Every structure is written in C-alpha cells, then in structure tokens.
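[stage:ingest] chain + small molecule (flavin-adenine dinucleotide)
[stage:ingest] validated
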Amino acid sequence: MADRVIVAGGGASGLVAAIFAAENGARVTVIEHKDRVGKKILMTGNGRCNLTNMSDVRGKYYSSDADSLNRIYDTLVRFDAEKTRDFFRRLGLYTKEKRDGGVYPVSEQAAIVLDVLRSACDRLGVRIRTDCEVTAVKPRRTGGTVSVVQYIRADHEQNKREKKSTALQHKHKEDMLEYDRLILATGGKAAAVSGSDGSGYQLAKGLGHSIIEPLPALVQLKCEGTFFRALSGVRAQCRIRLLIDGRETASEEGELQLTDYGISGIPVFQMSRLASRAIYEGRRCEAGIDFLPYIENAENQIFDKSMDRNIRDFAHKTVEEFLSGLVHKKVAAVVCRQNGVASGATVGHTGVRKIVECIRMLADFKVKITAPNSFENAQVCCGGVPLGEVDENFMSRRHSNVYIIGELLDCDGICGGYNLQWAWATGAIAGADAALRRDRT
Ligand SMILES: Cc1cc2nc3c(=O)[nH]c(=O)nc-3n(C[C@H](O)[C@H](O)[C@H](O)COP(=O)(O)OP(=O)(O)OC[C@H]3O[C@@H](n4cnc5c(N)ncnc54)[C@H](O)[C@@H]3O)c2cc1C
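[stage:predict] done
[stage:export] tokens:
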C-alpha cells in the first residue's frame, strides 16, 4: 500500500481523489495554490452546481483520441452518476434529478458540495496546504519528490495596526515534499480566476507527457458582422448548425443569446469545442441559425399559398413589422437591412420575392465564426494530456506512481453535469488505486 499520497490541486477531482486515497489507508496531502480549495466548484451551475447527469454518458464526451475515449467509457462505468450520488449521500448531501437528467444538491447550493468534501477531508485527516504551488516533480522508481513554493501572505490585521499600505505581501518559501504516489489534479486553464492557470500542463510535460493544445470549450463564439451590436441582448429559440469548411458538423436546438460580439447560450456552448478546434486548425467555421425552428420544414412552407396570401393581406405594413410577427424585432430589422429593404418600406411596395428572400434568410442566417471567447470565459478546456498516456486507473504510462486526472486530461464533456462527473469519477478511481496498488517493478 502507498503511504504518502500527494494531490496537486484541490479542485473537484483532487478533493475526491484525496478522500478515496485516505479512505483506503493513505496519508494524504493536498497542495493548493489558491488561498482556499474548490473555488471553481462554487462557480458551477450558476452557484447551484449541476454535479452529474443520470443520462447515458456515451457520446457526451469529446477527445482527440476516439479509441482511448471508448476504452475510458468502460472505465467510467466503475464510477457512474449513481455512484456519484451515493458518494455524496454518504457524505450527508442529498441530491435531486431534474427533467433533463441533471443532478443538483437538494438545496441547489454549490457551497454545500464544497462543504461536504472539505469536511470529509478533515474527518479523514487529509492535510490541506493552501497558498502552496507545485512547481516541479522529480519522480523516482518507487516514488519521488515535488517542489512546492509556499506563498506566505502578510497578516492583514498586523498590516492595519502597523498602517502598512500593502495588504497582501507575498513572501516565497521553497519546500520539497516526498511522495509514494502523486496525483496531478491541477485542472486546465479555463476560468483561471479559480486557480486553474495551466501550470499543470507544464508539470505533465516535465514528466515526458505530450499535450494536445488546450483550447477554450463550453464558451461563447465571436462572429463577424457589425450587425451584432444591433442584435445584442436578443434571446431566441433557434436551431443552429455548425458548418466546418461548408460541411454540417453539429446541430443543436435551444435558446440562442446574441451579444455584441457574437453568439452564446447552451446550444452554442455545446458545439463550441468543435468550432474552437476547427478555427485553431485554420478551417472555415460558420453557424447557420434557423430563427424559425417552430415552422416545420420552413424552406417549403414559406412558399405555401397561405404565406403568399398573408403577404398580400399585409401589403400596408412595413416589412419589419411583418417579419416581427415571426421573429424578434431586432432580428427582423437586421434581416431587412441585409436584404436591402429600406427602413419603412411596405410589404406591398417591396413585393413577395424580396420578402421570401428575407424569410429564407431567417431560416438559415449564416454568420462567420472568427474565434472562441477567452479561456477566462470558458467553462472547460478541450485538449490536455492524451488519454492514451494513462492507464484504466488514470496512472501515467510514463511514470508509475503518478496519476493524471480531471480536466488536465484530453477529455471534455458537454453541458449538463458531465464535466464534474468526469472530475469525480477520475478522482475516485485514481485516488483508490493510488492508495491500494502495490509497487510495480
Ligand atoms: C463558470 C463555470 C461553471 C461550471 N459549471 C459546471 C456545472 O454546473 N457542471 C459541470 O459538470 N461542470 C461545470 N463546470 C466545469 C467544472 O467546474 C470543471 O470541469 C471541474 O471543476 C474540473 O475539475 P478539476 O479538478 O479537473 O479542475 P479544477 O476544478 O479547475 O481544480 C484544479 C485545482 O488545482 C489548483 N492548481 C492548479 N495548478 C496548481 C499548482 N501548480 N499547484 C497547486 N495547485 C494548483 C487550482 O487552484 C484548482 O483549485 C463549470 C466551470 C465553470 C468555469
């Protein structure tokens, strides 16, 4: 049995890994470079924490290595959503399932999720060292050492008493800790304000791992077009197709949010990692927005007789007014402008042909996607350590005694609780294995 387990990173995956390692008899230390563990957990689900999802996980994750991902699906069965709910129930947290399969704490408070994890760590004697950063790893055959930089914060009260102006003076102290097993749980580089600043990629690289370029995922998409400023604030039920080099690659339906720089909302988040990667690879990326998803087979229907009659019946209305019966006014105005229909032009004056063109555009409004929004705005990263470089217990194939878990790996889920499920599952499996696996020779 491994005695000393060090967990680098006190986020979702790291805290669960620490609990499972300690429950299986290891002496565990968590090294966290922020002043508190689990900051990102508090941000999840808009503060409500969508902690897992009861739907089948197959098809809910992406990785650049499809074969390894298939293998990993078999592993994930060992700690599925039901096991996650059992685990939290065991820690005293009851959960509820919503209609889409998403699972939340009954109180819908992310803070309680972190509370129960922290209190389990306390109960099991897990040592948590905050304000400490793992800066380097030196593995040996039977274990190794990690270099840790400790940030010693100046005492705020003392500063006040002594009337010092700087409230936060960092002093650095180097430390070297020995481990039998090390678990890298440093996350990716999404939402760095919570602590995941990408330093884990350097640690993994230093151990000989390759890194698939991390890119923002579950993120808004920036688009070309000055008209976006006029559309900012519009929310609309839409069907959106993602076209990469002209080929439809994904399609989603849901509430689209238009911003002054592009598109947002759950359907956009779901396809954002594909767009992110395609843009990074220099491919042409477009979204085809159908603002009329409630009109079945819109392409045919717009030419039907009743619509034709409609157009004639409303000959006195402006085209913008007429189209506002179908879509948000701001969208109607932009589509008119894009089709050269002057503001105030009437239906009668504009003619059926032009109006049909406008309606066609509403059913397939093409925008060029230029970039994903920043890592800071992303919920997760795609990319990271290739899945093929860890075994079925998430132990590094480069170094026995080192595990790599959570978002640091090249695997990302869609919205709906799948990313936290990945963090809990990889943490639980690796934590138990790190404590129990006999030394390899
Ligand atoms: C706004 C937002 C909302 C989200 N909502 C949901 C949701 O509702 N459901 C869902 O499933 N997913 C959600 N996610 C995604 C989910 O939070 C992440 O997938 C998950 O937290 C990843 O867990 P992790 O342990 O791999 O990394 P993290 O949670 O990022 O934890 C990594 C930890 O390591 C620490 N660290 C990093 N480098 C070092 C170092 N060198 N030394 C010491 N410590 C280090 C960091 O400070 C951090 O505490 C959301 C994400 C965001 C940003």
